[in-house]
Write a structure and sequence with these properties.
227 residues; alpha/beta; 8 helices; 4-stranded parallel beta sheet
């Protein structure tokens, strides 16, 4: 039994299956096996590919790109920016909900669990899919970036009129993988307290996304999590 079990929805397998046989992925699996011998790794194995299993490739309309999973206990469950039920909102999520209310009038939800968005076609992808407990960015440059870059390229190449929401510099560095003639790219500072007042607040990503989807005859996202 490997530490990374690449069981992802068949719609994703069609476009990403080749990645699982590449050398970097074998090295990544070995790294995670060794890492788990001495450290706690988040999210749990069953949730590593949760983003892929929550939003089918065929249904994807929006990509929100994060960095790496939350590294606190019981936070990460494989969806970028989302936390498990009953967990206190991290500061970035607090600011996302503040902008959501200012943008669309959605009340702050009772839970920071974002599966409702994922089920509506919002792909909540981190560029790195695992992290060592209490050690941010600890699994950076171990191979996940190759896999998530391949994911972004697959979306770019095989779909039309997707909204890519890139918050912060690491996410915006992926802009080079996206054809702005085929898709909409929305960029803003990261929602963390350090940068949210430099242009994240007031960026209106949720209403801009829906305007674009409507323009291209796609169903809008119901962003309000309490509805």
């Amino acid at each position: 039994m490997t530490t990374v079990d690449p069981k992802i929805d068949n719609s994703w397998k069609k476009v990403l299956e080749a990645e699982f046989t590449k050398e970097y992925f074998s090295s990544l699996k070995q790294f995670l096996i060794e890492e788990k011998e001495y450290h706690t790794v988040f999210p749990k194995n069953k949730n590593i590919f949760n983003a892929y299993n929550s939003t089918r490739f065929d249904d994807l309309k929006v990509v929100i790109l994060g960095q790496d999973p939350y590294h606190g206990e019981n936070q990460a469950h494989g969806l970028a920016f989302s936390v498990q039920e009953g967990i206190k909102y991290p500061p970035s999520l607090v600011n996302i909900f503040k902008e959501l209310k200012d943008d669309l009038g959605c009340e702050v939800p009772k839970s920071g669990e974002l599966s409702k968005w994922a089920n509506e076609g919002v792909f909540l992808l981190n560029t790195v899919l695992t992290v060592r407990a209490h050690n941010a960015a600890s699994h950076k440059s171990r191979g996940w970036e190759y896999f998530t870059d391949a994911t972004i390229k697959a979306i770019n190449d095989n779909k039309q009129n997707v909204v890519f929401i890139l918050w912060g510099r690491p996410a915006q560095m992926k802009e080079k993988l996206i054809d702005a003639k085929k898709h909409l790219i929305l960029k803003a500072p990261h929602p963390s307290p350090l940068s949210s007042y430099r242009g994240f607040f007031g960026s209106k990503p949720f209403s801009k996304t829906n305007e674009y989807l409507k323009l291209h005859n796609k169903a809008e996202i119901d962003w309000c999590l309490n509805s």
